Amino acid sequence: MTSTSAESVATPVIPPVLAEVVRSGFVEGRHRGSLVLLAADGSVELAMGDVTAPVFPRSANKPMQAAAVLRAGLELSGERLALAAASHSGEGFHRDLVQKMLAEHGLTAADLQCPPDLPLDAVEAETYLAAGAVRDRVTMNCSGKHAAMLAVCDLNGWPADSYLDPRHPLQQLVLKVVEEAAGERVAAVGTDGCGAPLMAISLTGLARAFRHFVLAPEGTAERRVADAMRAHPEYVAGTRRPDTWLMREIPGALSKMGAEAVQAFALPDGRALAFKVDDGGIRALGPVLARVLSLAGVEGDVLARVGSAPLLGGAVEVGGIRAAF
Question: What is the pLDDT of residues 174-219, one digit of tens each?
Fold first, then answer.
């Protein structure tokens, strides 16, 4: 029989509670996760949980993907560039601009390799379905990114049928941009919900990347993406989305959420943050984000709006999700 010393057994790290679910004064659930806040000089001001382990940032990687498209030579600006970095709500103005972007490069919706979907925004989805519309590739929240990727392939003579292959020249450039912005190597490459390659970095690396984008010199691909997103946030998200509210109401803010409850954010002075809720509970994003922004010294009515996550009982508010730190 062999014995195992206590020192040789790895103790599981239990992530801290970032948010509590409170119903009728009773805590009925908890959302755990990890969070990092960087000071203006880039040093770590607050760290909760493991902020150095790799995570999939999901759509919080989209600014890096858009910057790669610019580096590859595609001329995009304004709303088009914001839409290339978007997880759009599928509202009419989003769908119209995706169609225009495709037509401008001789492409159609059939060329997109993102899956057909309904509008990401629940209100818009009801209107969309009531009009008799069905799932469509243009409506999928990543269609702007895919349209830009296809356009840059056409520009460079790269194969369009394999533009989502991690070995494709475009995706290799995306990987390079992610590593440069994050200041670390990509730990793993997976497949995102839209079918695009997904690069894993740490939460600290993700916060550094957003800091890099807001501090980049004017005219660089990174700064052009950040400026377009901040000037046209409704194209990055939608009219009823927190990323839009934050970039509209906090001067110079850059904000992007990702699936599975990931959030990245940066201020123009270099303060930046990133966090992930382990269970993927999107409902916890707003309360956690509002709390850490408050700790970072951000003020304004928008924090209450973003942080509001009520729970209903019989169509009456009986509780809510609240930050636990």
Answer: 999 999 999 999 999 999 999 999 999 999 999 999 999 999 999 9
Secondary element (H or E) of residue 147? helix 143-156
Question: Closest by alpha carbon to 87, among 306, 275, 244?
Answer: 244
Burial of 317 (0-12, 13-18, 19+ CB in 10 A): exposed
What is the residue type of 311?
L
Tokens (6 digits) for 200: 């894993």
SS3 (DSSP) at 75? coil
> Which is higher by pLDDT, 3 or 94?
94
pTM for this prediction: 0.95
Q: Tell me the three state secondary structure of residue 316.
A: strand
- Distance of alpha carbon 29 from alpha carbon 42, whole angstroms: 34
- What is the per-residue DSSP string for 206-247? HHHHHHHHHHSPTTSHHHHHHHHHHH-HHHHS-TT-HHHHHH
pLDDT of 10 reads 64
Which residues in 219-236 are b (16+ Cβ under 10 Å) and which e?
A: eebbbbbbbbbbebbbbb
Q: What tens digit of pLDDT does each residue of 159-182 get?
A: 999 999 999 999 999 999 999 999
Say if residues 151 and 42 touch (Cβ distance below 8 Å): no
- d(C-alpha 259, C-alpha 62), whole Å: 12
Report the pLDDT value the prediction gives residue 13, as an integer from 0 to 100: 78
